[in-house]
Amino acid sequence: MHSTREYNFDGLVGPSHNYAGLSFGNVASFSNVKSASNPKQAALQGLAKMRALAARGFAQALLPPQDRPNFRLLRSIGFTGTDAEVLARAYKESPVILACAYSASPMWTANAATVSPSADTQDGRVHFTAANLNNKLHRAFEHAQSARSLRAIFSDDKHFAVHDALPPTPAFGDEGAANHTRLGASHGAPSVELFVYGRVEFDPSAPSPKRYPARQTLEASQAVARLHGLDAKRTVYVQQNPDVIDQGVFHNDVIAVGNGNVLFYHEQAFADEEASLSQLHRAVAATGAQLDALRVDTGQVPIQDAVTSYLFNSQLLTKEGGKMALVIPQECQENRAVSRYLEGLVASGGPIDELIHFDLRQSMRNGGGPACLRLRVALTQTEARAMHQGVIMTETLYHRLVQWVEKHYRDHLEPGDLADPQLALEVHAALEELTIILNLPGLYDL
């Protein structure tokens, strides 16, 4: 049990990183629409974060970017001709759809899948279900490559089960680990799996947001729990507060984060805070652990400050000795209310005694912070040995990837550049070389 480690699989930012503002309901993404991006800087910032955490002794790996542009999408909706003609026509007739085909959003690997470690599942394997992300066109095609990548990395079916995405219909809207967390004594102990949903498809009377879409349904969360063979006594479903969804909290990981026995959450996170916390306390206690709920009041950190700073979209990591570090974006220190709150939190003598901050400005402007960038996978020593080793972050891999980024990535990308056929060729060349670096031949259907 104690030999289980939590691996953080960070999304490697792709060469087409751009600000298209495609995600209605994601305030940061929407507010930077059509500004110039710097793919090279975005990738290097992400790699620096991975390297630093690996150097601190945390288990760190990466998920590779997806192939872009998505020519299959463009051709399926009537853009024909050579690749260059497809791009030119799409840019002329629907630049928004072209931007969808070039979306860099697979970098948000918290949305790649939901993961249940072997300690929680009926068959004792680690289960993954690729998220269908069907709420947004630019993300609805990601699940095919996400499943392909996960199967390439976790190919040993003695230890791992990778499920295809749920049916791509609103009833099963599934956004992956961004609405899921585990709470228990340790990564290797049987734990409570918490699913947070935004709406109920088959109950029209259930509360739902009015302004922005609720992307996760209760029905999807229940389906994932069934696929993973979870114990009903250790599975909790809680509704996200519809009012905070309407304030730009598009996923639960923008308003709450859990790790071990700690739930760090905003008082407005859940539709019924008292009932939700009561249910969690009981379920966690039944595993032999005690839930430590760290509540942040609106008076301390207003919702707007939580959203703009991405305070809760931080990584909560267990250090040697049991205390926890909170990995925050630089924006948290630039927001007066959040900075003041965090100073008090670290000084309080509670479970979180350290802040680790990173400059992730490029990814923050695209609507996600440190926790969006990573998929958590708890693995025993045997399971860790059984997975593909080429994606584990080491100093050697870090330096190879920095050289690769410097060689292949642009440092300036405008919306109009997406029409340039040369960009598509650059992305393909970069990804072909990446499969060699990561030793994952056949990863892409290029």
Automatic annotation (TrEMBL):
Transmembrane segments: none annotated. NCBIfam families: arg_catab_astB, PRK13281.1. This is N-succinylarginine dihydrolase. Homodimer. Catalyzes the hydrolysis of N(2)-succinylarginine into N(2)-succinylornithine, ammonia and CO(2). GO terms for molecular function: N-succinylarginine dihydrolase activity. The active site is at E175, H251, C372 (nucleophile). Its EC number is 3.5.3.23. Keywords: Arginine metabolism, Hydrolase. It comes from the Bacteria. Belongs to the succinylarginine dihydrolase family. Pathway: Amino-acid degradation; L-arginine degradation via AST pathway; L-glutamate and succinate from L-arginine: step 2/5. HAMAP family: AstB (MF_01172). Substrate binds at residues 20-29, 111, 138-139, 215, 253, 366. The gene is astB. It is an enzyme of class 3 (hydrolase). InterPro entries: AstB_sf, SuccinylArg_d-Hdrlase_AstB. SUPFAM superfamilies: Pentein. It catalyses: N(2)-succinyl-L-arginine + 2 H2O + 2 H(+) = N(2)-succinyl-L-ornithine + 2 NH4(+) + CO2.
